Amino acid sequence: MNSNSKQNPIIMILLVVILALVAYLVINSTTKTTPVGENQSAAAGKPKTNSNTKHTTHNNFVVDTIAPVITSFTTPSTSHSLSIPYSIVATDDSGIVTGYIVTMGTRPTASDLGWTTSASGTYVLPASVDGKMMTLNAYAKDAAGNISNAFSSPTIYVTLSGGTPDTIPPTVNITSPMDGDVVSGIVPFTVSVTDNIAVKSVYFYADNGAINVGRCDAGQACNSLSEYKAYLDTTKLTPGMHWLTVQAYDTTGNENEQWIQVTI
Ligand SMILES: [Ca+2]
Ligand SMILES: [Ca+2]
After folding, report:
1. Phi and psi, residue 206, nearest 5°
2. Domain tally for the chain?
3. Which of 158, 183, 201 is the last residue of a domain?
4. Per-residue pLDDT averaged across 156-160, rounded?
5. What Å distances lie between residue 140 and 71, 75, 118, 137, CA to CA?
6. 12: phi > 0 → left, psi -120 to 50 → alpha, else beta; which?
7. Among the four residues 52, 74, 232, 245, which has the most C-beta atoms within 10 Å?
8. Are residues 134 and 77 in the same domain?
């Protein structure tokens, strides 16, 4: 037996070991570099690709909670028609105002039927406003349904007969009690009110309007010629100094008022 025949088994064993080691390294390397596909579980047990997609969607989703802002609402100051032309200017953070609406004061909801995509149009008033001063309110909304604050028009005088507007308020003169009087019990609270056209209503208050003493409309039993009357129950007020106020309105809506101070 020569030396080659003794070495062959050792060489064969070494070759087998080397091949096995190479095979292990190749398999191990292939496993580590295999990308995680949509259907292959990552460490957390969830598809890696889907997880990334959800995260991106969440970051890009923005809720619009900012309402539009109206900067201008144009109407005529006098109208001889019940149809009032108007023009609204509004802006929104999204860049797009999707709706406009005009009302006589009621705040709309986003689903009201009166919304229009046009910033200008005509609002038709009821016939009852003829001869009166009044205002309209404009609102704007965005695609998310956010509604702006009300923006009031300038005062509009509606006169179908073509007359000139009454801008003169009533005259008001409290006749009882007198300023500085000391009063007790239930006392008459009277005021003389006149107007160039006609008086409509007189309101009586105490403590800067905090206490409603009464109301007297023209033609009621509490009204005789230019005198309007209510009764002040001083037992409902604390002892001391109190303001008494009268507010009078004419039929056009012009207002005037007077204050006096009494001691209880
Ligand atoms: Ca908005
Ligand atoms: Ca008047």
Report:
1. -130, 155
2. 3
3. 158
4. 90
5. 11, 16, 10, 10
6. alpha
7. 232
8. yes
**175 and 148 housed in the same domain:** no
pTM over 0.85: no
Dihedral over Cα of 224, 218, 172, 246: its sign: positive
The rounded Å distance from CA 8 to ligand 2 centre is 129
CA atoms within 13 A of residue 70's CA, in its CB half-sphere: 25
| Coil vs helix vs strand at 108 | coil
Nearest ligand to the CA atom of 131: 2
- CA–CA dist 108, 137 (Å, integer): 10
Q: Looking at the domain assignment, is residue 164 inside a domain?
A: no
Please tell me the distance between residue 250's alpha carbon and the centre of ligand 2 in angstroms.
5
From ligand 2's centre to the CA of 163, what distance in Å?
14
CA 106 / ligand 1 centre spacing (Å): 21
Percent of the chain with pLDDT over 90: 66
How many other C-beta atoms are found inside a 10 Å radius of the C-beta of residue 159?
A: 18
